[in-house]
Fold this sequence. Notes:
By secondary structure, this protein is an alpha/beta fold. It has helices at 34-37, 52-65, 75-88, 91-100, 116-129, 148-159, 172-179, and strands at residues 21-22, 41-46, 70-74, 103-109, 134-139, 162-167.
Amino acid sequence: MQGEALQDGAPGLLSGRGPHVHLRPAQPRLGSCRWVAEHQNVVITGATGTGKTYLACALAQTACRKGYKALYRRAPRLFDELTLAHADGSYARVLARLAKVDVLVIDDWGLAPLKVQERRDMLEILEDRYGNRSTLMTSQLHDHLGDPTVADAICDRVRHNSHRVMLKGPSRRKEESAEK
């Protein structure tokens, strides 16, 4: 399907020249937010500029319109926030806040190698949320997890119970800059 991931659940969010979305035929439409109600995850992958963040934000906005609470964080800033929380003693409160939100969007995950503490933090976040809340991640699928044991645990919580969306095509940013 092209550009139909949100058509029924959120009219207009993918209007115009939105990203090309390729879903497996048996996959339910994400725009209904059934994935949120069932505490499932969404992993959006694709090359730079293909619309991963756009689609993630559209899905989160659709969830908000249906009464769910969503929180958006770019992975590097999330890890910075957690580093500060470790230092000032608020780590447990930050984890609790992340565990309670209905949809946690983690954008640009895995762009650079994760440090040991970042891997542990990510595992804690995903463990708290698994089967209880939905996590939406965007990634370019770079293999930067490091420690195979922790990487396996993280991937286990991300892969299972997840809808996977692969965006293909040229960078939308290049197209937009050529038009100006």
